[in-house]
Amino acid sequence: MAENRPHRNTVAGRTPSGHRRPTPAAALTRSPELVDAACRGVDPELFFPERRTTGDRGEQMAAHDAKSICRTCPARTPCLVVSIARGEWEGIWGGHTPGERRALVRDAVALRHDVRATVQALEHGTRFPPRPGDFLAVVHELTILGWGSERIGHVLGLDPDTVVRARARAGAAAAVLAAMGPGYRSEPAAA
Ligand code: SF4
Q1: Selection from 94, 98, 115 nearest residue 176 by Cα
Q2: What is the DSSP string of 117-154?
Q3: Residue 189 domain-assigned (yes or no)
Q4: Quick check: is 101 in a domain?
Q5: What is the residue-wise DSSP string for 14-52?
Q6: Distance 12 CA to ligand 1 centre (A)
Q7: CA 69 to CA 25: how far, in whole Å?
Q8: Domain identity same for 87 and 117
Q9: For 83-140, what is each residue's pLDDT tens digit?
Q10: Are 170 and 123 within one domain?
């Protein structure tokens, strides 16, 4: 686990108004999955980089240390899911910045698009370019059918690297949807 590190312009573990700020793990429920959370005992300020930096690049650099801790955490998935379910749009949760969590939610919503007609047409060899908003769901459905990246790229007119990245995005969004359960009805969060 990373050592505690105080940061400029803040008192470690305190909000600007002086209140104790919990780490994401401590803010979560007492779920058994979160007992071994890697951020327990770590300076909470580490997980709220947006409050001590400006600009996307500064935030990404400040997020690096927190993300390093999250990568070792056995509670990474439940932490991410709980943060989305609770609408936590500040801080690093489950190894994701707020912007990355919003992107994940948008992808999860896109996966719910009904793309059966497009997929059936592609299965029957018909070139049927998906609408831009359906792209991720089509890639996901073809992946489930066992299509490889090259084959998907061929029918959609994409290079395989683009398909590989889309498959990774779709897989992460599908995992979040699966963990949320069938009742999850979130709309895409504002950018
Ligand atoms: S994933 Fe990161 S923020 Fe979440 S409980 Fe683990 S270490 Fe803490």
Answers
A1: 94
A2: HHHHHHHTT---PPPGGGHHHHHHHHHHTT--HHHHHH
A3: no
A4: no
A5: B-TTSPBPPPHHHHS---GGGTT-TTTTS-GGGG-GGGS
A6: 18
A7: 12
A8: no
A9: 888 888 888 999 999 899 999 999 999 999 999 999 999 999 887 778 889 999 999 9
A10: yes
In a domain, 186, yes or no: no
96 in helix, strand or coil?
A: strand
Q: How many domains does the chain have?
A: 2
Question: How far apart (Å, rounded) are the C-alpha atoms in residues 149 and 165?
Answer: 10
Residues 66 and 146 in one domain: no
How large is the average pLDDT for residues 38-49?
A: 84
Most confident of 53-62, 82-91, 128-137, 168-177: 168-177
**69 CA closest ligand 1 atom index:** 7
Task: Judge if 15 and 69 occupy the same domain.
Answer: yes
Nearest CA to ligand 1 atom 2: 70
Q: Residues for the chain: how many in total?
A: 191
Are 89 and 139 in a shared domain?
no
Does 130 lie in the same domain as 172?
yes
| Closest ligand 1 atom, residue 83 Cα | 4
Ligand 1 contact, 78 CB (< 6 A): no
**pTM above 0.85?**
no
115 and 170 fall within a common domain: yes
Please provide the average confidence, as pLDDT, over all residues in the chain.
79
